[in-house]
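Help wanted!
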Amino acid sequence: MFALVSIGTTIGVIATLIFETWAFFQEVPLWRFLSDTQWTPLFVNPRYGIVVLITATIMVAAIALAVAIPLGLLSAICLSEYAPPPARRWLKPILEILAGVPTVVYGYFALLFVTPLLQQVIPGLQSFNALSAGIVVGIAITPLIASLSEDAIYAVPQSLRQGAYALGATKRETVVGVVLPAALSGIVSACLLAMSRAVGETMIVSIAAGQNPRLTLDPRVSVATMTAFIAQVSLGDTPVGSIEYRTIFAVGMVLFLMTLSLNIFSFWFVRRFQEKYE
Amino acid sequence: MKFLDQSLPVPTTPTSHFESSLPMRHRLDAAFASVVWMAVLIALVVLMSLLVDVAVDGLPRLSWDFLTSFPSRNPERAGILSALVGSVWLLGIVACIGLPVGIGAGIFLEEFARRSFLVNLIEINISNLAGIPSIIYGLLGLELFVRVLEPITGGRSVLAGGLTLSLLIMPIVIVATREALRAVPSSIREGGYALGGGRWQIVRRLVLPQAFSGILTGSILAMSRAIGETASLITIGALTFIAFLPALSPEGLRTPFTSLPIQTFNWVSRPQAGFHTNAAATIIVLMIVLLSMNATAIYLRDKFRQSKSFG
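Answered by r_m:
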């Protein structure tokens, strides 16, 4: 009975999104939604080009992954291969604390610490920009990558490492040439999950990236991601059933499809490429 | 030890296949090790600078008045009383609704469910639910709890917020409960059956006490996720200017609300520096609550692991 609540939640999510999105597409043709290059649904003359929001979302997620994958993966290697057990016992909870910090706190950090810092280095950086939002989203998802990759690296049997050492490999050669390839499926799936988290991240981008929908790949200016748009509309007083109200469900639908396909791809990847050691 | 005999021919070094020299390889190793440590160091430095930055900004503002005042247009007189109380209400609702349902579902799936199509479906479903962004839960809450169930929840109320958060943390609670139950050795269950116990008796008297601390740890972590949650509550329309406390009655459940992270978001989004200071002070309060919850959970887990290794 209780377990059915979880099924009910999924059905509820999908039904809600489909229902409101359907109503949205009664008024806005799908083709205009996909092909328009401007996003101004709250103006008198509304234009609905989802490409604008998707571009911004992907740009922020890409910056985030560029920060998080090296940092998270190297931390995972350090924790599982290099850190002595006492250090590991201290570092792991710290990583978990970093993972438990609410995203609104990261948002504060991005807007009032990272952006002023970057403005001293990069001229022309607006006070709301995709760059510092992306970097901080990266910091926020680093613990996720680190802890999932660490699990995958930890699961590689000791005998493989010993085999590599017996062949005369150094520690780095063992880690890079033997352990990492053996854990690759877990690491890739961790990165995909982290990407899905970065795409769905709301508070950091609403606070630090601004709410200015425009089609650009310049990370120094203010952009609006899909999540930031939903948050922005929700903050205003939007009448139920209006076209603005339905817009956020249509955007939510796109977001849901993106994260869902990333998650499914990630599970599939583990199942398909996992190396089994008995 | 014949093979160490000097008279044996020394194998020629296969330089054609093996170009890098041993010192070079060791230097590369040292470089890699320092890069790896650097990554952890960066993570630590970031965490430290985050905490120090917030502490420097917010600590001077923190006072008893700040905790016991309502929000205000004047940043010096604003406080977080309604946010604090709102967070407590939300946690209470999650503890009363989200936790029992999640733990119940976990117990059912792990101890009672037989392999079937439906159970498989539920399991795939739970792992997918855990990956849905919280703002999508907010959209669900907006449609379901705020709009469809408005006669019960009273619209954008603390009850609607609590229910949304309950759905949000359910996958976490279910997974944690199942892991805790799985860690109980099956010999305990078999012993119970051998004494003639029924399934429910065994789960209640033997398995649950063993798994209790694990479930508790998972529940605390889920609650700490709920207390920091912002995006879904913004979507269902939590207000930021609340200058009253909800009545301690069923009617109080239906009043509008705010919470610590929402108050923080609101103050961060304002241009005046005075409100930024308030946001930092609110973050300190939030982080103290969160860190103590996380520390309790980690402590409980370590204690649990130790006692298990002795048993």
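OP: Thanks! One thing I noticed: Chain A touches chain B through 82 residues (CB under 8 Å).
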